[in-house]
Design a protein that fits this description.
A hairpin with a 5-residue loop joins strand 1 and strand 2. Helices cover 21% and strands 33% of the residues. The chain is globular, with a radius of gyration of 26 Å. The two termini are 45 Å apart. Strands 7, 9, 10, 12, 15 and 17 form a 6-stranded antiparallel beta sheet that branches. It has a 5-stranded parallel beta sheet with strand order 5-4-6-18-19, sandwiched between helices. The longest helix has 19 residues. By secondary structure, the protein is of the alpha+beta class. It folds into 4 domains: 98 residues, no CATH class; 188 residues, SGNH hydrolase (Rossmann fold, 3-Layer(aba) Sandwich); 139 residues, Galactose-binding domain-like (Jelly Rolls, Sandwich), CATH 2.60.120.260; 135 residues, Jelly Rolls (Sandwich), CATH 2.60.120.
Length: 577
């Protein structure tokens, strides 16, 4: 008890300091001492543990949140930079990154879920977005763009997400491909940071008008453009954006409230160069915004990333009537897409931003190969800074690497997550979710074992399938109450066959009271030599009474010595409806 008390006193000492002026030394010492003395969660470089406490990382985080009450911006700054007591900017050692904590967001009122990302968000037959949607009973809109980056996400949400949408959780897991192409490039980091501003704006906007609206007064030689080809929003809210290259051209907009938002277009400063403009509130300079260098001009294969959308947030104004003025201060084009206002934070649905996960050495070496651990760490600092720009709004971050184990969670391509990896990514997001909906059963797992009538294995991962016909079957669930469930069962296979055969998935129950079909699925029927096969998913709804069970089966009928498979994963989810 004395040892535990000493830890408590250590962290209570933080309370005596100003909330946003935490001492670097005290913070580092406290967290490092905790990690040295905790066997289950010590950093890789820590010496052998000599003392063990029953405290867990979660207990520590909970205690810090409740007793220290570090403001959101200070929590974010634990991963990036903060001002300590001598007002010097210092970086927290990356060994502390697994302890990064984020305020959880409440999704109790959410019924819908929009998941934005790259191929991670849809890879395999049970990606993390599906797992989260099933776990929390949300209707999923999966906005995944394989091989793409932040531009595709920001332009997509500008075009597809309707302002004022309610009861919708938004998540992002993006930047992975941007870093693989851009590497250690401040413009690439800025592209991700400022692209995320567009995501936040669309979730939190109460209203917006296109920049060519008659409600906005224009002085000078402004021209119009939809900006739809460069990710803008104006054309999707009934108008056009505007632009000018004439110094001292300006626009004014009168509004009532404590905030205003400006949608604009930023450039790489090389292929596309833009200018800068002053933002004034009630004729007082609020900010000069330079649009150059906030994207990198590196193509994602479809788009050149020379002009990208972003959003400027002006918050914390006194409630009442105000006038926004934007003044062109350069001879290069500036672009104004729209002007809007945010809802009050308590009226907003949440956003969870996934930090970019690291890769293994083989993955980093796979083209495009500009990324590495240091690049990922810097990019995540920029992401956290983006979140910090909207203090008080329901934004959380998922520290994916705290759960994602690159030694076990990466598929055989050394890039994408395998089924276990998708579960761990889902757990990283779930860590930052509060939900007071009635508890409903949810489970996920893998079907393991061997389909055998031959000693020569053709699949080396889960499930293990051997050559020749056979069956792998397992009872995975027994109901403890009378209820309705949704079962999803999938297998991911990659390989070739030189003879005809097929793989079938089947879901069966003790009472057979299935509400939806199919109960089984022909995953592959391959009649041609050397044809590639990849797998599939089957799902259905079923009513089970107490004690009734669900069984899952895989059948395969390939001929002996006919199949070459490089990967095989099986997984299932069971969620109570």
């Amino acid at each position: 008890m004395k040892k535990i008390a000493s830890i408590v006193l250590l962290f209570l000492s933080f309370i005596t300091q100003a909330q946003n002026l935490l001492s670097t030394t005290d913070l580092s010492n406290g967290l490092y001492r905790y990690r040295y003395m905790t066997a289950s969660k010590r950093c890789p470089s820590c010496p052998a543990v000599k003392v063990g406490f029953d405290l867990t990382i979660d207990t520590l985080e909970s205690y810090m949140n409740k007793r220290i009450k570090i403001p959101v911006n200070s929590v974010l700054n634990l991963s990036t930079f903060f001002s300590n007591t001598d007002n010097k900017i210092q970086r927290i050692d990356k060994e502390l990154s697994p302890l990064l904590i984020s305020n959880a967001v409440d999704i109790s009122n959410c019924t819908n879920y929009w998941a934005f990302g790259d191929s991670f968000t849809a890879y395999g037959t049970n990606p993390y977005s599906f797992i989260l949607a099933n776990k929390y009973g949300l209707s999923l809109t999966n906005k995944s763009y394989p091989g793409k980056g932040i531009f595709k996400v920001s332009s997509s949400i500008n075009s597809d997400f309707v302002i004022g949408t309610k009861k919708t959780l938004i998540s992002t897991l993006i930047g992975f491909n941007d870093l693989r192409r851009g590497g250690n490039n401040v413009k690439t980091f800025n592209k991700i940071k400022y692209g995320l501003q567009t995501v936040f704006a669309n979730q939190f906007l109460a209203s917006a008008i296109p920049a060519n609206s008659s409600l906005i007064t224009k002085s000078g030689t402004w021209s119009e453009n939809s900006f739809s080809g460069i990710g803008g929003k104006a054309s999707f809210i009934g108008g056009n954006g505007i632009f000018t290259s004439t110094v001292n051209d300006f626009i004014t907009y009168s509004f009532t409230g404590d905030n205003v938002v400006v949608g604009t277009i930023v450039t790489d400063g090389v292929t596309q160069a833009s200018g800068n403009f002053d933002i004034l509130i009630d004729n007082v300079l609020y900010q000069n915004f330079n649009c150059n260098g906030l994207t990198d001009g590196i193509s994602d294969g479809d788009y050149d990333n020379t002009r990208n959308p972003t959003t400027i947030f002006i918050t914390g104004l006194t409630s009442g009537s105000h006038t926004l003025k934007i003044v062109q201060k350069s001879s290069s084009n500036i672009y104004i897409d729209y002007i809007g206002q945010l809802k009050a934070p308590q009226l907003c649905s949440p956003v969870i931003v996934g930090l970019v996960p690291r890769m293994n050495p083989t993955g980093y070496a796979t083209s495009p190969s500009a990324s590495n651990d240091a690049v990922v760490d810097i990019a995540n600092q920029y992401i956290l800074e983006s979140i910090g720009n909207l203090s008080g709004y329901p934004i959380s971050f998922a520290n994916v690497d705290r759960f994602y184990d690159i030694s076990k969670d990466v598929d055989t391509d050394n890039i994408h997550p395998n089924s276990r990896g998708q579960i761990d990514i889902a757990n990283a997001f779930a860590k930052n979710i509060n939900c007071t909906k009635p508890d409903k059963f949810f489970s996920t797992g893998e079907l393991t074992g061997t389909i055998a009538n031959s000693s020569s294995s053709i699949l080396t991962l889960v499930p293990k399938v051997t050559q020749g016909s056979g069956t792998l079957s397992s009872t995975v669930f027994t109901s403890t109450k009378n209820s309705k469930y949704r079962i999803s069962f999938g297998v991911s296979l990659s390989g070739t066959t030189t003879s005809s055969g097929r793989i079938i998935l089947q879901i069966s129950g003790t009472n057979g009271n299935f509400l939806t079909n199919p109960k089984n699925l022909l995953v592959q029927n391959v009649p041609n030599n050397s044809e590639q096969f990849q797998g599939g998913t089957v799902s259905c709804d079923v009513i089970l009474n107490v004690g009734e069970t669900i069984s899952l089966s895989i059948y395969q009928t390939y001929a002996t010595s006919s199949v070459s498979v490089s990967q095989a994963n099986s997984f299932y989810t069971i969620s109570e409806l």
